[in-house]
From TrEMBL:
Protein species of origin: Cettia cetti
Catalyses which reaction(s): L-arginyl-[protein] + 2 S-adenosyl-L-methionine = N(omega),N(omega)-dimethyl-L-arginyl-[protein] + 2 S-adenosyl-L-homocysteine + 2 H(+)
Cellular-component GO terms for this entry: cytoplasm; nucleus
Function: Histone methyltransferase that dimethylates histone H3 at 'Arg-17', forming asymmetric dimethylarginine (H3R17me2a), leading to activate transcription via chromatin remodeling. Maternal factor involved in epigenetic chromatin reprogramming of the paternal genome in the zygote: mediates H3R17me2a, promoting histone H3.3 incorporation in the male pronucleus, leading to TET3 recruitment and subsequent DNA demethylation.
Domain of life: Eukaryota
Compartment(s) of residence: Cytoplasm; Nucleus
Predominant location: cytoplasm
Record's keyword annotation contains Cell membrane: no
Protein name: Histone-arginine methyltransferase METTL23
SUPFAM superfamilies: S-adenosyl-L-methionine-dependent methyltransferases (SSF53335)
Length: 198
C-alpha cells in the first residue's frame, strides 16, 4: 500500500480479483492475459506468477502508473512482462497492434461513471478482436444509481455475476478491510452477447 491516488494503491477490488485468479490458477498457464488500469498490478502479477502470458496496461496519460506497473513486475521477479500505455476509449497504435488475448482483467475500473462508456468501448473492441475472450472485473458498489446495464446492451455485451463465496473472497478482513461490510465488492465476467455464435 503506497498511496491512495488511483493507480498507486492496492484497492480491495484488486485483492478480490487476485483471489479469483488464485482459485483458478490451474487454468492460467499459457493463457494470454491483459490487465487494464493495472496500477500496482496485483491481479496481473498473480496471473503471471501462475504461468499466464501477461501484458499490463494503464493510461498513457499517467506515466507514474505505468512506472508503478514496471516496479511491481521487478519486485515480483517478472522483468519481462510488457507494460503498455492504453487509454480507455482511445484507439491507439498500441491497442491496434495488441497480441491476441484470452482474458482481460480490470479491478475497480468502474470507479468514475464518466469513464464507464470509454472502458466498455475498449472492452468491446478487444472482445470483437478476440471473440472467445472474457473480461474478469471486480468493482466496489459505491452508489445504487451507478449501473452499466444500459451500456452493456448498447455495446452488445453480457455479464455474469460471480458470487464471492464461490472462490473464498467473502472472508472478513480480506484486503485489510471487512467484507462485505465497509467495502461491498462484486465480481462479474463480461463477454460478447453473441459469443456462442462466433
Amino acid at each position: 500500500v503506497l498511496d491512495s491516488q488511483y493507480g498507486m494503491y492496492v484497492w480491495p477490488c484488486a485483492v478480490v480479483l487476485a483471489q479469483y485468479l488464485w482459485a483458478h490458477r490451474r487454468s492460467l498457464p499459457g493463457k494470454r492475459v491483459l490487465e487494464i488500469g493495472a496500477g500496482v498490478s496485483l491481479p496481473g502479477v498473480v496471473a503471471a506468477r501462475c504461468g499466464a502470458q501477461v501484458i499490463l496496461s494503464d493510461s498513457e496519460e499517467l506515466p507514474q502508473c505505468l512506472q508503478r506497473c514496471r516496479s511491481s513486475c521487478l519486485m515480483n521477479r517478472l522483468p519481462h512482462v510488457p507494460v503498455l500505455g492504453l487509454t480507455w476509449g482511445r484507439v491507439s497504435p498500441e491497442l491496434l497492434s495488441l497480441a491476441p488475448v484470452d482474458i482481460i482483467l480490470g479491478s475497480d475500473v468502474f470507479f468514475d461513471p464518466k469513464d464507464f462508456e470509454d472502458i466498455l468501448t475498449t472492452i468491446y473492441f478487444l472482445l470483437e478482436k478476440n471473440p472467445h475472450a472474457q473480461f474478469w472485473t471486480t468493482y466496489q458498489v459505491r452508489s445504487a444509481d451507478w449501473s452499466i446495464e444500459a451500456l452493456l446492451y448498447k455495446w452488445n455485451l453480457k455479464s455474469s455475476h460471480i458470487p464471492l463465496h464461490s472462490f473464498g473472497a467473502d472472508k472478513e478482513h480480506l484486503a485489510s478491510s471487512s467484507l462485505p461490510g465497509r467495502h461491498t465488492i462484486e465480481m462479474m465476467i463480461i463477454s460478447l452477447a453473441q459469443s456462442e455464435d462466433t
